[in-house]
Amino acid sequence: MTETIERPRTGTAAANQAGAHVNPDAFAQAEDFLPLKGIDYVEFWVGNARQAANYYRALWGFTPVAYAGLETKVRDRASYVMVQNDIRFVFTAPLTPEGEIAEHVRLHGDGVHDIAFLVDDVRSAWEETTRRGAQSYLEPTEIDGGEDGIFRRSAIRTYGEVIHSFVDRSEYAGAFAPAYGRVKDPPAAAEGLTLLEVDHCVGNVALGDMNRFVDYYRDVLGFSQLIHYDDKVIHTDYSALMSKVMTNGDGRIKFPINEPAQGRRKSQIQEYLDWYRGAGTQHIALRTTDIVGTVRRLRELGIEFLGLPHEYYATLGERVGDVGVAMETLEELGIEADRDEEGYLLQIFTRPVQDRPTFFFEIIERHGSRGFGVGNFKALFEAIEREQARRGNL
Fold first, then answer.
1. φ and ψ at 241, to 5 degrees?
2. Among the four 13, 169, 290, 310, which has the fewest Cβ within 10 Å?
3. 3-class secondary structure, 224
4. Largest separation between any pair of C-alpha atoms in the chain
5. What is the pTM of this model?
6. Is 375's pLDDT higher than 80?
7. Would you say 26 and 250 are in contact if contact means Cβ atoms under 8 Å apart?
8. Are 247 and 226 in contact (CB under 8 A)?
């Protein structure tokens, strides 16, 4: 396992990072046998793709750009491709009660199926990863898109039923992929939102599996461990968890991996595992440059966020200093703040966005900090526990 190295810590940053072991050489240590150009798309398997697409258009500001289904001669599924800046989500639902998608939705509810990477060579990516121990999901495939060109894809399995696709679009000019038609004159999306890119994707795995998947991302994909949070920092009076953050070579792709820890009550990770029926992607963080305006607009549109008590904000200014937003505004909107040696960040978490208490979103605005808001963990988890108690799952 990659050795973690603690940076010297002083002052407020020291208090915030206590129990967080940071590896300052993580980006340099990540190997380059698998050059990833970024996250190409995230695909969700859902019960009703049309309704999901409308939800993300009307409430989250995503624009539909491509569609696949009966009208494009696809007989087993319907898919909508939704885009906002550099974020591309795909929502896919089964058209019949048989098959992999229908079984996935029956077992898990709505959830993340594929976190896809853009690469230059899908065959090399597949060969390098499967040679190092990855289980193949899709062998390197070339799909002839006619006048739009050639679309190339391969895929491997990771934790739970999540896969990583490798996608090459260098010779493809279509809307998304062959069998997808371009959406002409798309309906207007919600305005006033500045969601720019996927900041990180968080995976929840069972107790004892965190290190196994940390090793997987290191050995199979060449990632390196950036931060290790132990149960001394991620805990409340009732529950705890442990987390390690893996990153690729240029730091653009970050995957925290969580597992539950022993506590007096059921942790949020165990609640997720129970209701999702196994390991999966717990939440996706979306980066913005205007968290105040974005959160205010999302609240107006009906998105629900976790709430924090006044006591959190009463001491926040002393802990983080000036973060460019008045404390009264942060409290009004429920936005959290944290500071480390590199800068500060602002963040907020939604309530689960489907009926099961599983997947949710984080909105994050970074000002130098590459961390994940460790100074907020206790207050955040207490807020989650209040939600768990309301659901009878604590």
1. -150, 165
2. 310
3. strand
4. 62
5. 0.89
6. no
7. no
8. yes
